[in-house]
């Protein structure tokens, strides 16, 4: 699928920065709130940005590589957690409710058939991916279909008035996919990208690394090759939920929405999308630094500073939800805080 992610119009950048600098505070005193306000103003191409109908979409899919015992939990937990989302009992349900975000749950490729529920959006590509240690996780046609289906959903949500969207994931085994993708797109070693995921012991991490190295050897794909053909890399190692997050991010950026990037899994999807369209990162607000070790390396590669570092590693979009009040504060100070002139407060001397 083709996307057209336009570069941000920098025409207002000087005016936005001046508006920020003229608020009644020392220069730079609001730190990341200032850079966030500037980014959102540029995304919306206005000096007075507004955030409307925040939405978090959680995409779920199973991974064939779990056959190699790379996860602390069995694959059936994916479907069980989707039911938990639908019943309102997961962490993302709590935080989305708390911070006023609509929550959408999407079956991208869960292994089993889920019970009929009007709250579940069924866009299943297949019943889980293949075991990428032995063969590609999906074919390119399936990968394209995942991009297309999630892009269609974002178009629908945008049409309801949403202009800020975060993405979450659910998929046992998906830290293995994310580690493969981050190693390729951020050009880091697998040993540095692989972590405990949902709670592996050190022995489990070592086994996981062995499996992923075999997958790496199977294809011989290099960071350069992945950069030249990101869709092929995504098809080789991705999950259906990762592919859908990638397509959803690209479509959201195409529509000029603020894209909230959660943790390890969502960042791997963004890296894929970034390789397809280099302007994607300009629409992204990185919400938290995951405790999964490879995430810090990916953020360093992207030269992005996340808003939060709470030692979280849950996924589900929880970091995006937790960051929402901070993002609202960034827009609020830009729109509502007095300038030195308005408040008749003397500015810095010299």
Give a written overview of the molecule.
With 350 residues, the chain is of the alpha/beta class. It folds into two domains: 12-49 and 334-343, no CATH class; 55-331, Rossmann fold (3-Layer(aba) Sandwich), CATH 3.40.50. It is built from 15 helices and six strands. It has helices at residues 13-21, 32-44, 76-86, 91-98, 140-159, 174-185, 190-193, 202-219, 223-228, 230-237, 240-254, 264-276, 293-302, 318-336, 340-343, and strands spanning 55-61, 102-109, 120-122, 164-170, 258-261, 284-286. A six-stranded parallel beta sheet has the order 3-2-1-4-5-6, with helices on both faces. α11 packs across α12. The longest helix is centred in the middle third of the chain and has 20 residues, at 140-159. The radius of gyration is 20 Å and the shape is globular.
Q: Largest sheet, order of strands side by side? A: 3-2-1-4-5-6
How would you name the CATH homologous superfamily of the largest domain? Nicotinate-nucleotide-dimethylbenzimidazole phosphoribosyltransferase (CobT), large domain
Uncertain segments are none
Number of helical elements: 15
CATH class of the largest domain: Alpha Beta
**Strand composition percent:** 5-15%
Helix content: 40-55%
Main beta sheet: 6 strands, parallel
Number of domains: 2
N-to-C CA distance: 54 Å
Question: What is CATH's topology name of the largest domain?
Answer: Rossmann fold
> How would the global form be characterised?
globular
Structural category is alpha/beta
Q: Say how many strands there are.
A: 6
Assembly context of the chains: single chain
Average pLDDT value? 96
Gyration radius from CA atoms, angstroms: 20 Å
CATH architecture of the largest domain: 3-Layer(aba) Sandwich
Helices and strands, in order, run as: HHEHHEEHEHHHHHHEHEHHH
